[in-house]
Write a sequence for this structure.
């Protein structure tokens, strides 16, 4: 060997990847990498008990069809499917408090595309426990719960982190999957560009009297969008945006008063409603890391891009990062390249940064256009929605976009 | 292994070679065009080798047991992937300064690669034998292509695989490789290529047959200016192209 010291360092690595973040994207990446024979250590700040709690906490996700395909490719769909609610239709309407039912402008029906339902609702508790179980039964994955990274370092061929107990872990590549406040990105000196919307999302799950029929609704209210997403049984997830001040006072209300504010916003087509879990608030802001990669470093999910949840694309965009990074790395490994080298990471960045920036910009424009009560704008968007609705080809394009089937698809999402 | 070079290198020179290696391996540095082309070249090379020697690219070290020669190895952009796939790889370069640079980078990558400052002709004269000879972007630079390809043929074991890429000779390749890459984009130093030394695919096949090789495949490397990537093409061999040939 030309340099035995370096070689011995390389051989003493803990795993190929060090993934900081034990939420959804981190475990998903560990599983996707394992399929390509790449090993991971997943460092999670939270204890396992928090991740495995299985009472319903009110949080759920709209999985786009592309994300469903990816979970299937990872061998997880069988366990998940029983807990999902397919979204057969999405109805988009322009509403004002009290008259929401009157106008239904846009109607997307998955019967119009051959791939099946455009998405599936799944509760957070099922997704996170299935990912955790799969991780724990995979020989290529080491799970480190209740571990906090205090510092990180790298050279041209490896990255390392120091944990709060002083342990040092080394790998070929460090992954930041630690959310929009990503410490991994901060420690790497990656700046973020972002802005707030002066809006807050109120999130809850409701029980309702009448069946939802697998239909998702999106109402564009003057204060911000309101989404009703069907969960299994007579339950739906509500994502409801209000101005910061309104949200603050609504959130301070008792459950009964909270429901009293919510009810007139979408009318009574679901019959009587009641809260089915905890209430959450999320300030709406958009934050984009100025770079998705660094030397021996890649960011995925909210660590790379925190998005407005208006189109339900946050988790889907994160899974798309994961699939794209796994795709780029596994193809590189097959051709003998160092999959954590700058040239390979540049391919991931080129692929995802463009997609993400355009999705973020489109979502932003969409929200500004719709969160407005100007009568002229209202007339224009009603006309626009009617026009999209009248042209089947345009409608199919929107459906495919919502299903995550546009753009270059990573291997894991091809189905 | 060819450690003669390493052992004669002054340790104070190592930092300099590591800096030069960093330059060779910078995806946005002066070898950017080669880095952009490299995945496409590797896809062709790995697929041809796997097909010819019945290797499974999904296994960890599919090329274990294969002895490969890379002529004109430069900073090791092909040697390192071959080593990672398990091959015994020897990289040779006529430019002496490339050797310690490639060695420095292989050490950083934790790979064992035998780099030598020599030529294909000298290797053939020494009786070296390989399963595969990689002859990428070299033939357009040599004075006597037939003599050179004959040396490549001699370096192969019977049944061995010769992979050779070069640039076509036509008005488009003149525009792309010389006017475009050297003068406009400044991807390559001016004078890198002499257009009259470019070889058409038919001429290359004839040369290979005369050198005792049996051509079996040819494909184009096509640059897509929208996605800024290279793709393999069955039909478009108008500028960069690659061939596979077997020694009977």
């Amino acid at each position: 060997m030309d340099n035995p010291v370096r070689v011995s360092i390389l051989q003493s690595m803990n795993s190929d990847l060090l993934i900081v973040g034990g939420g959804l994207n981190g475990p998903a990446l560990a599983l996707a990498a394992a399929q390509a024979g790449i090993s991971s250590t997943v460092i999670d700040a939270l204890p396992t008990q928090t991740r495995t709690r299985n009472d319903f906490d009110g949080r759920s996700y709209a999985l786009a069809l592309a994300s469903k395909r990816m979970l299937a490719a990872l061998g997880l769909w069988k366990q998940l499917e029983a807990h999902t609610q397919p979204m057969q239709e999405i109805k988009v309407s322009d509403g004002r408090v009290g008259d929401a039912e009157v106008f239904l402008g846009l109607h997307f029906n998955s019967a119009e595309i051959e791939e099946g339902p455009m998405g599936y609702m799944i509760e957070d508790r099922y997704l996170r426990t299935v990912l955790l179980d799969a991780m724990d039964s995979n020989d290529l994955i080491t799970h480190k719960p209740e571990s906090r990274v205090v510092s990180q370092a790298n050279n041209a061929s490896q990255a390392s982190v120091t944990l709060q107990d002083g342990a040092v872990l080394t790998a070929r590549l460090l992954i930041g999957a630690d959310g929009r406040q990503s410490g991994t990105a901060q420690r790497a000196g990656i700046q973020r560009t972002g802005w707030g919307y002066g809006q807050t999302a109120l999130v809850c799950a409701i029980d309702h009297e009448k069946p939802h029929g697998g239909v998702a609704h999106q109402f564009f209210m003057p204060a911000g969008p309101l989404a009703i997403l069907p969960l299994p049984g007579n339950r739906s997830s509500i994502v409801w945006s209000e101005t910061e001040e309104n949200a603050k006072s609504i959130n301070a209300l008792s459950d009964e008063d909270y429901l009293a504010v919510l009810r007139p916003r979408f009318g009574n087509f679901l019959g009587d409603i009641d809260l089915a879990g905890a209430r959450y608030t999320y300030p709406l802001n958009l934050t984009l890391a100025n770079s998705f990669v660094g030397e021996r470093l890649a960011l995925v999910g909210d660590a790379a891009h925190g998005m407005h949840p208006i189109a339900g694309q946050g988790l889907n965009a994160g899974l798309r990062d994961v699939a794209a990074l796994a795709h780029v790395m596994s193809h590189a490994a097959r051709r003998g390249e160092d999959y954590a080298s700058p040239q390979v990471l540049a391919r991931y960045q080129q692929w995802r940064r463009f997609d993400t920036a355009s999705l973020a910009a489109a979502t932003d424009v969409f929200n500004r256009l719709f969160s407005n009560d100007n009568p002229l704008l209202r007339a224009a968007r009603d006309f626009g929605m009617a026009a999209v609705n009248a042209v089947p080809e345009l409608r199919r394009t929107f459906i495919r976009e919502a299903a995550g089937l546009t753009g270059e698809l990573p291997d894991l999402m091809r189905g | 292994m060819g450690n003669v070079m390493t052992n004669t290198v002054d340790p104070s020179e190592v930092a300099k070679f590591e800096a030069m290696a960093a330059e060779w391996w910078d995806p946005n540095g002066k070898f950017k065009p080669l880095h952009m082309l490299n995945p496409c070249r590797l896809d062709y090379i790995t697929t041809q080798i796997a097909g010819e020697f019945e290797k499974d690219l999904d296994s960890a070290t599919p090329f274990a047991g294969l002895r490969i020669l890379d002529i004109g190895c430069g900073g090791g952009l092909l040697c390192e992937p071959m080593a990672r796939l398990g091959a015994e790889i020897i990289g040779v370069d006529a430019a002496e300064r490339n050797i310690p640079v490639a060695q420095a980078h292989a050490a950083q990558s934790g790979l064992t690669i035998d780099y030598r400052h020599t030529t294909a002709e000298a290797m053939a004269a020494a009786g070296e034998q390989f399963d595969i000879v990689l002859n990428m972007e070299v033939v357009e630079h040599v004075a006597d292509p037939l003599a050179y390809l004959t040396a490549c043929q001699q370096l192969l074991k019977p049944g061995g695989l010769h992979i050779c890429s070069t640039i076509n000779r036509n008005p488009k390749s003149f525009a792309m490789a010389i006017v475009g890459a050297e003068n406009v984009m400044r991807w390559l130093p001016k004078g890198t290529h002499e257009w009259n030394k470019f070889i058409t695919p038919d001429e290359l096949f004839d040369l290979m047959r005369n050198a005792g090789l049996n051509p079996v495949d040819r494909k184009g490397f096509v640059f897509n200016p929208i996605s800024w990537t290279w793709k393999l093409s069955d039909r478009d061999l108008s500028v960069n192209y690659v061939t596979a040939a077997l020694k009977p």
